[in-house]
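During data preparation, a discrete fold description was generated, and the record follows.
___
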Amino acid sequence: MMVNFRCAPRGLAVDDVLARWRSLVDIAEIVARGGTRVTVVQMASFDAQVARDGVDYRFVDADDARHARRLGRHAARVAATLGPDVVHVHSLAYARCASAQSRAQPATPVLLQDHADGVPAGLRRFAWRRWYGSASGIAFTSPGQADPFLRQRLFSSTTQLFAIPESSNRFTPGDRMEARAATGLRGDPCVLSVGHLAPGKDPMTMLDGVARAVERLPDLQLYCAYGTAPLLDDVRRRIEADPRLAGRVHLLGDVPHARIEALMRATDLFVSASLSESAGYALLEAIACGAVPVVTDIPSFRAMTADGRIGKLWPCGDGAALAKALVAAVEAPVDRRAVRGHFDRALSFDALGARWASAYAALIAAKEAR
């Protein structure tokens, strides 16, 4: 049983919720691909049931149960009718709800899945330590993402930790030349960035690295697709003030998601200067399309790129290192087919489904051993 304690937005019907929260659907379908029977319990303001692609969705009216303990008991009542072997809870932020659910059904293992959840600080960590303690397992995209929690001793010594990428996606490589014609992207190399122009994405370091790389890669073109852009004015000023960037960096703005696949297919290199990521959905999409990643050396990106074997990793905040990585990616290119092959082996729906099935089996075995 998979539980999302975050209540669905009011006024949205079932189809609207599932369309808006694609990751909820994708993760459920990933699990189902591993041969696991999946029921998703989604807190909402109404009751409804629907079956799609091998997954049962149960929307539960939780209007009278906004408190964590009540939400947990709500989930426990649904679980009592389903008899699940494992309860898979989305987000460490809902550990308190999961703890209440676990107290109501102590014999059923609970697994928490990280979704870019921060580490509790100060005195609050003592309560969170208790709530996390109800989990038999916790999953992160990369083992390194658990380290801040472990340093604070927030997890029980008996809690099993799993490294499983947060999700997958349905993008495919397609034909690169057709994608170039359709999108108008050009450059040798053609470089694409997809991410907010915000401090956490560090676009200024990205521009610094590209400016330095141009000295060795004079035909480089950079395209930037972004949603929110609090640093847009700074980015524009940086581009206009540097002749190495002016006319070479193209700000595409907020691009519809349906068009992102064509951009990923058209580009040679995908660049990200992110300082931290839970999983990095844009990177995942790039790998699915065969674009070679040139991304920061952070735990989730290391895990998704097989420690940089299908691309290049570089230290956060280091424009000179990014420039070297871009040049190296051109001078010793990784075959796009190898990038997509890595996706199929390690990041596809089938690959992740098998890993989730293995994690559930480990939790069930531990329960039986006890």
Remarks:
- The longest strand covers residues 38-44.
